[in-house]
Amino acid sequence: MLSFFKTPRIRGGVHADEHKTATAALPIASDFPLPKKLYIPLQQHVGKPAEPLIMVGEKVLKGQLLAYSQGLISAPVHAPSSGIILDVNDYPAPHPSALPIRTIVLETDGKDEWVETHIIDDPFKLNPEEISFRVGAAGIVGLGGATFPTAVKLNMGRENRVDTLIINGSECEPYLCCDDRLMQERAEQIIDGVRLMLHGMTNSPGANLHLPEGCRTGRYGMKTEHAVVAIEDNKPLAFLAMLVAAEPYPTVNVIQIPTRYPMGWDRQLIRYVTGKEVPVGCRSSEIGVTIHNVGTAQAVHKAIRYGQPLLNRVVTVAGGAVKRPMNVEVPFGTLISELFDFCEVDKEQTARIVMGGPMMGDSLPHVALPTVKATSGILALTQSELKNTDEQPCIRCAGCVSVCPAGLRPLDMANNIRINQLDAAVDLGLKDCISCGCCSYICPSNIPLVQYFKYASGEVMARQQAQHKSEQTKRLIDARNDRMERIARQQREDELARIAAKAERERLKAEQEALV
Amino acid sequence: MILHMKPSSGAHVGANNSVSHIMGQVMLALLPATAFGIFCFGWPALNLFIITVLSAVFFEALCARLRGRVAKPVIMDGSAVLTGWLLAMTLPPWAPWWIGVVGSGLAIILGKQVYGGLGQNLFNPAMLARVALLISFPIEMTTWANMSPLFFSHSPGLVESWHITFSGLENSDASTGATTLGFIKTEFSQNRLLSDILKDTSGFLSFIGWSRGSLGETSTLLLGLGGVWLIRQKVIQWQIPVSLLLTVALLAGVFHGMDSEHYVGPLLHLNSGALMCVAFFIATDYVTSPNTPTGQLVFGAGCGLLIFVIRTWGAYPEGAGFAVLLMNSATPLIDHYIRPRIYGRDRKGKPLEIPKS
Amino acid sequence: MTVLSAIVSLTLLGLFLGLLLGIAARYLKVESSPIVDELESLLPGSQCGQCGFPGCRPAAEALAEGSAPATMCPPGGSALAEQIAALLGLDLDLSDVKEPELLVARVSEATCTGCTRCFKVCPTDAIVGAPKQIHAVVADACIACKKCVEVCPTECLQMHPIEVTLRNWRWAKPLNVPAQSAGTGSNAVC
Question: What pLDDT digit, counting tens, does each position of A334-349 carry?
């Protein structure tokens, strides 16, 4: 209790208009027609892009591996439906710039024919390593938006002393309610996925014997003791459903947390649930906590129990311009335009398309872009919903300071960035900014603070790269100069040797002549 | 469907607030105290109020034009009106028209625009103007009118009020006097004791505002209500007013307890002079006060300390203006040293250590 | 007598303090900052000559003398200008620094004859190839000095702007300038 007073468990944050009621009451739509063509980007995750192993013109089945993961942090990509591969080329990415990304185009045949899958009766008999291997092979990444490969996290859980697994069901972004519906409708699957994850993080004896002595940090035979499912208290139905589903399992607790954006920021949630703070530059597993999204848990359930890879997800389509806002389960690679047609989006009224939530999401320039593993929602916002962009001078109201969950001073950072003092902004904590958008949301002067920080972060990165390049250039030039010098010296020595040899020859000749 | 080629990042939605909305709410909170002040001091007070606000707007527009900008949006943010309003509240109610005009000019031009406009100034513009006026025109700035409510027979009528405002007050001794704090200060210099000095003053009357003083600063009750409403509306934070008032009350209490004949008690301190107005409306000015709650506590306490020191031992009976200006100049320093702790870092900015378990 | 003692004591004092200073100067000697060397180490060192000086060393000397502005190096851009200004303690107005347009040399395979002239002049060995074989440019090592373009007999080497991809795309600086505080930066904030 004392520690509760010492460090406030929730810091900053805002309470935005939720706009969830219309969508959260409807069941997840499953009657979305299978698109004729699917555009499946090869990188839908953090890390290295996947490498395709199919040929153009090849026929593939639903769930078949299309591209394998490259390297340690990567994830494979599977066919979301059966059909024929039309193309492997660059297509616009679902990114604010819509720049091209390597994409597989799949023409569906409408049969939706599954590849052979293996149903496992008792997955708890599997090795923990086997669990995380299968999760990795199923292409599962964090479905909360960060898209970090889940298997890597499970492995980290095994290698560290993780005692708490937090399942993030907060869904704090306004408009979005796909996790809410998922928890209401598929609570058993989620809880099963959570238990499988707990099992996958169990550190069985000898699990990391292949590692050198110093790296074996985990306790052998140690289990992650319990999982906590944290759900914001604006989702009572989801909470109830999860509570019922978790009833038989004492290792899984379901708790309610206050509704406050950004409650779903992993570090905020970790502090609220465990009271521990993740030090800057560390992963949460280093303090004994791992955090996953509810959607990820459901994907793990499907992957382990039924051998089904991650092929689709629930996407919230909402916003003022959407006539039929809903949560809809779509295969990856579905174009947003088809999703919008299905939900009857009014194109005239749409002022901005946002991928993700309205706080952290980015705008998209057009709708001919595919949905990917990270797409939790697509919003079509009208002009009246958008924040006014008419920027006024900062009045130093310090609203941004009080809402910043990371404890930064956005106004001072933005002032420094405006006058190109990027180093000063970095000193003020630019790199600790999580671009949650609270400061932009609250600013009465409509200053696009987050964009300032994103710009500055990119610029700092570019300067570091430029610096790195100039150092490398210098090294290259030095190496070349050395080489030139060496060659010149070599030539000089050769020349001298040649002259000496000639002199020697002449001397010998002279001697011989003298002898003769 | 190509919509919005310029990428824009979150937050795409926003809280329903704006600069002009904030300024409007502050004005709304000031309204009861101002209306009461104008009622108490009659038509001349209304004249002065209107002149001060209008000239503040005029100077703001002039500066905007000189900087080559369209004046209308600059005026519409409401900051100039608010500055003029706050300045008018701190002026003696029957001051001549040119006091209002010069004051507004000082506040807007010297107090704000020379620093680069809204949000850039180091000192509170209204307080800067008030202090400059007080030093430059001590007579006009310390001539306090008697209570002369609107529509009362002995109060100046409309025509007479124009006379007072535009050509000055004749026979001022009959209709003016000293404020409570000023009276006490003069009487102390005559070596009179406090109980003797205060036998005619009523704490209740000065609480509701029925006493001589600046145009809008007399009513502790209405100013306090307005301030509490602002805190409830989350326009201002509680830290500055509470720490300021508490510091003054504590210091006054301690000294009054030690020597009740030479040190004014806490209630009288809270009820008189500019204290309430400063605590809720001047010291809480966003631009010139610190950004963090702790910094605001320090700032408020500093203001309170300086107010008490100047009132008790200084040459002026009221020290609120000076106190606020002095603390304004300390604001950058406070913000530099008192900053929030960044998540995952200690107070010095070093990453936290991984707890050993 | 008093005058004499004053003179003597002051002289002694002066000598003593002078001695102290001398000792201090010897033992607390500060290595004089070899500013030109430091500047030269900051500069790219590619001797590209775009600044108007015949190489980076003369440019550094000019900077140290103060006869060249901190923004003189086009390939370094504003990042370098800031570093130079910090080193020399200059006030820097970055508003008129043009970020260098990023270019990279590319070999047109149709016209390359494999003459090897280009990779002989490349200061960073960014061009690879062999006689009578088509050359190629290692984009990461190319510094856009354009020396290869000058020597290429068939004009097959051309400078191209670096393409924007998902990897190097960055957010733009917000352009909206507040109505009042344009131009001057806020210093009231400190």
Answer: 999 999 999 999 988 9
- Among all residues of chain A, which has the CA nearest to that of C186? A415
Spell out, as residue ranges, where chain B has pLDDT lower than 70. Answer: 1-5, 356-357
Whether the predicted pLDDT of C94 surpasses 80: no
Pick the closest to residue A273 from A85, A10, A1 (CA basis). Answer: A10
Question: From CA A480, how far away is CA B234, in angstroms rounded?
Answer: 66
Q: Is C45 on the interface with A (CB under 8 A)?
A: yes
Query: Which residues of chain C make contact with A452, given a CB cutoff of 8 A?
Result: 173-174
The H or E element that residue A334 is part of is none
pLDDT in tens, A45-55: 888 899 999 99
Residue C187 pLDDT > 60 = no
> Smallest Cα–Cα separation from B254: which of B244, B245, B264?
B264
Residues in A 158-177 with any Cβ partner in B closer than 8 A = 161, 174
Number of domains present in the structure of chain C: 2
Inform me whether the C-beta atom of residue C69 falls under 8 Å from chain A C-beta atoms.
no
Strands A252-257 and A226-232: parallel
Residues C40 and C92 in one domain: yes
Residue A249 counted as domain residue: yes
* pTM for the model: 0.85
**Residue C117 shares a structural domain with residue C152:** yes
Domain coverage including residue B42:
19-177
Side chain identity, residue C24: A
Indicate whether A220 pLDDT > 50. no
B198 found inside a domain: no
Residues C113 and C146 reside in one and the same domain? yes
Q: Which domain holds residue C140?
A: 103-161
Give the pLDDT band (50/70/90) at residue A209.
very low
- CATH label of the domain that carries residue A196: 3.40.50.11540
| Torsion angle, alpha carbons of C161, C166, C170, C171, to 10 | 130
C177 vs B: CB within 8 A: no
CATH number, residue C108: 3.30.70.20
| Three-state SS at A418 | helix
Q: Are strands B176-177 and A350-355 parallel, antiparallel or unpaired?
A: unpaired
Q: Give the CA distances from residue C76 to residues A366, A466, A511, C46, C71, in Å, rounded to whole numbers and listed in that order.
A: 36, 8, 65, 11, 9
